[in-house]
Amino acid sequence: MKAIDCFVGEGLKPKAMSLGFADARTPQTIQLESQGDVNKATEHVSSSDPKLLEAALKKKRSLFANAFTCRDFNKNDAFVALAVERGHAFEIPFSYFLRREGFKRSVLMHRGRAFLKKLVKKRVQYRITSHARNESELRSPRDLVALGVCLGLTEEQAFHA
Fold it and tell me: What pLDDT does 1 receive?
């Protein structure tokens, strides 16, 4: 099983490859913090401000976006509508689930499942990534598939994510 995980922390690529990931180029990530950052978005975007993320999705085409950083991302239908219209894809970051504890993790699971259900229904592309910052957050491709299944995907859908 060769999978691609292009979002691993500094120096973790060799370890990720030993777990079964193929070597992949890491896209340039723009953390949207102001309206000026929207113009800089080229490949991968992330923002805690849903309005900025929505602006980037409106302005650009074929972005890879991390909506999990936005509050109530699962309720924002504009993200999904813009993804359908403009050809965007979304990231499902495994480590975000690892970093939450107790009730906060269950809330994130609920929101992630609702968001993923919308993506599948509208046939929007998505990828499950480890988004590991350190070695303890690094997971194997099978772990990423297992998260997809926990979020309501079939095993086949999760495998292709």
Answer: 47
pLDDT at 2 over 60: no
In the block, residue with structure tokens 């970093």:
99
Q: Which domain holds residue 9?
A: 3-160
Length of the chain counted residue by residue: 161
- Longest CA span, the chain: 41
pLDDT of residue 90: 94
Residue 103 has what DSSP assignment? H
Look up the CATH number of the domain holding residue 101. 3.20.20.140
CB atoms within 10 A of CB 119: 21
Strand order in the sheet with 64-66: 29-31, 44-46, 64-66, 89-93, 125-129
Q: What is the reported pTM?
A: 0.86
